Automatic annotation (TrEMBL):
The keyword Translocase does not apply. GO terms for molecular function: actin filament binding. GO terms for cellular component: actin cytoskeleton; cytoplasm; endomembrane system. Keywords: Membrane. It is found in: Endomembrane system. GO terms for biological process: actin polymerization or depolymerization. Residues 62-148, 198-245, 328-397 form the Gelsolin-like domain. Pfam families: Gelsolin. The keyword Ribosomal protein does not apply. It comes from Talaromyces proteolyticus. This is Gelsolin-like domain-containing protein.
Length: 403
């Protein structure tokens, strides 16, 4: 069945439903802009006027600014909004008299529906406040985009979260094992210094050959260096250990996987009967720590789909599949969904109609369900999704469509 058939049968809410259904009418835009004009988070005199990075966490349906000393630190039980504003270059490479904006709403693997929905809605509201010129990104913890990772020299993801209106994520009661941290350079990292510190399940199954792990057992800290880990990851682990030991003076032992003694760490993580000669490489950003290497976002054929109401009703049609997609394939009167195989871009033409603008979320979500079911890929729902507006496209979009 072609990917544009049967795409409007919605299923029960889960992470792929994190984009709220929005009307998109003129009055809807006015309501959102008026709401944005009274949102304290957007009205600090800097948003939309100054270049820089701003981060907010969703707390009890409110958008709460994150202290700058916590930038790059995220909790898997929370949802966040990240705004990156930058000076746009003119044709001669100089600074133009305007700002470009990238808005990311980041969803932790254990965030609640109320937090995810609030983050999605407030992202649209922030875009309205910025006059609809921003690129919007949905970021899922397990598979962050290259653009998101590149914002942070150090990215840390921990277990836990804040209280919300419907649930409270609490830290597990410490048992014998306190914390296991995985230190690695994400494949999507755009800068040499972009490293991620990710708290994973404290089990030997979380270990892999490519990364460095820090095991904090309370009375002692162990550093386990995978055979294929890089000097950068080892150096970052040393920094993490330094930070952990500032408040408590305990022993630290660093072990390379190649050393026979490093089996101690595997034993401490419940793997006494495990042969540690090799561990399967972990997936890019492991949410559960179970080492399921088959859960990566698989590459698909490139597809270009059109959302158009030119016939009198809004239709979702396949334009191209398995072919090169070029800027000339886009029409400013419609909206296009471009699936690169690893990321989904939504391009909104400057002359798209109100009904077309109102339906892109519904059709994009339906398309995600299609590739999840037809490609037998249960993790298609975590495919990064970004929306750009004609005339305000970012360099990542032009790079993707030119490949």
């Amino acid at each position: 069945m072609p990917p544009h058939e049967g795409l409007v049968h919605l299923k029960e809410y889960d992470i792929k439903d994190s984009n709220v259904e929005l009307i998109g009418s003129d009055i809807d835009h006015k309501v959102k802009y008026n709401s944005a004009a009274t949102e304290p988070a957007w009205n600090d005199g800097q948003i939309g006027t100054q270049a820089g990075l701003h981060i907010w966490r969703i707390e009890n349906f409110h958008v709460v600014p994150l202290p700058k000393n916590q930038y790059g630190q995220f909790y898997d039980g929370d949802s966040y909004i990240v705004l990156y504003s930058y000076t746009v270059k003119d044709n001669d490479g100089g600074a133009a008299d305007k700002l470009g904006h990238e808005i990311f709403f980041w969803l932790g693997s254990k965030t609640s529906q109320d937090e995810a929905g609030t983050a999605a809605y407030k992202t649209v509201e922030l875009d309205e406040f910025l006059h609809g010129a921003a690129t919007q990104h949905r970021e899922v913890q397990q598979y962050p985009s290259e653009e998101f990772v590149a914002l942070f020299p150090r990215l840390s993801i921990k277990s836990g979260g804040v209280a919300s209106g419907f649930r409270h994520v609490e830290e597990e009661t410490p048992k014998e094992i306190t914390t296991l941290l995985r230190i690695f350079k994400h494949p999507a990292a755009g800068r040499a210094g972009s490293l991620i510190v990710h708290e994973v399940e404290p089990t030997w199954r979380s270990l892999d050959d490519n990364d460095v792990f820090v095991l904090d057992k309370g009375e002692k800290i162990w550093v386990w260096q995978g055979n294929k880990s890089s000097p950068m990851e080892k150096a970052k682990a040393a920094q993490v250990v330094h930070d952990l030991t500032l408040a408590k003076h305990i022993d630290v032992e660093v072990l390379s996987q190649a050393e026979a003694r490093s089996k101690i760490v595997v034993d401490l993580l419940g793997g006494r009967d495990v042969d540690q000669l090799s561990f399967q490489s972990a997936r890019p950003l492991q949410a559960t720590g179970h080492g399921d290497s088959k859960s990566d976002v698989s590459s698909r054929p490139k597809r270009l789909l059109r959302i158009s109401d030119a016939s009198g009703q809004v239709l979702f049609e396949l334009v191209k599949e398995g072919q090169s997609i070029r800027p000339s394939d886009l029409d400013g009167k419609d909206i296009f969904v471009f699936d690169t195989g690893k990321k989904i871009w939504v391009w909104e033409g400057s002359h798209a109609t109100r009904s077309e603008k109102a339906s892109w979320i519904q059709f994009t979500q339906a398309y995600v369900r299609y590739i999840q079911d037809s490609d037998a890929n249960p993790n298609a729902a975590v495919t990064p999704v970004a929306k750009v507006v004609q005339g305000h496209e970012n360099s990542a979009f032009f790079k993707a469509i030119a490949l």
